[in-house]
Amino acid sequence: MDPHEQQYVNLLLAMAVDRFSERIIQRNEGAQNALDRLRTNPQGDGVWLNEFVDAFFRDALLDNPAGSCLILQALANRRLNVPSPIFERATVGEVLQEMAKQTFATLLQQKTEEALEQTLVFGGD
After folding, report:
1. What is residue 1's predicted lDDT score, i.e. its pLDDT?
2. For residue 81, what pLDDT band results from cuts at 50, 70 and 90?
3. What is the pLDDT of the chain when averaged over all its residues?
4. Share of the chain residues as helix, strand and coil, in percent rounded to the nearest 5
5. At 1, which helix (H) or strand (E)?
6. What DSSP string describes 38-90?
7. From residue 55, how far is each of 26, 29, 114, 118 by CA, in Å?
8. Which band of pLDDT confidence, cut at 50, 70 and 90, is reported for residue 93?
9. How close are the terminal C-alpha atoms of the chain, in Å?
10. From CA 76, how far away is CA 51, in angstroms rounded?
11. Cα Rg of the chain (Å, integer)
C-alpha cells in the first residue's frame, strides 16, 4: 500500500473513532458507561458498533469492493474477529465488504476504548 493511501485510512479511522466515541458517550451518559457497554456488548443498546460501521462506510464511500479493498489492504495483517455467515453464499465483492467491515469494526472498538480511557484519565465523566 502506498504511504498516501495508508495515511488516508489512518485519517478515516481517526475520524470514525472521534464520531463513534462522541455518540456513545452521549447515548450512555458518560465515558465510563460508554466504555463498559462497548466492552461488554458492542452490538447492544446505546453502542451499535456494526450499525455505525455500516453508516460510516456509506458516508465515506467505502461501501463498495474498491473501498473494502482499500480497508483490507491497510489492515491486511489483522485477523478477523468473528466468523460471518456471509461467507457461505456470497460473491467475492460481498465477502470483501463484509471482511472489511468486520476488521474495521474490531479496530474501531479497540481505538474507541483507548480514546474513552484517555478521556477518563484526563478528567472525563
Report:
1. 83
2. low
3. 90
4. 70, 0, 30
5. none
6. HHH-TTSTTT-HHHHHHHHHHHTT--SHHHHHHHHHHTTTSPPSS--GGGTS-
7. 18, 22, 22, 25
8. confident
9. 39
10. 23
11. 15
Residue 33: partners with Cβ closer than 8 Å, 6 or more residues away = none
Other residues' Cβ atoms within 10 Å of the Cβ of residue 34: 29
Task: Say if residue 45 is exposed, middle or buried (CB neighbours under 10 Å; 0-12, 13-18, 19+).
Answer: exposed
Q: What pLDDT score does 98 carry? A: 83
Please tell me the pTM assigned to this model: 0.80
Residue with more model confidence, 79 or 34: 34
- As a whole number of angstroms, the distance between CA 74 and CA 100 comes to 10
Cell numbers describing residue 87? 461467507
> Could you tell me if 53 and 105 are in contact, meaning their C-beta atoms sit under 8 angstroms apart?
yes
Alpha carbon of 117 to those of 6, 25, 64, 122: distances in Å? 25, 12, 33, 9
Grid coordinates of 113: 476504548
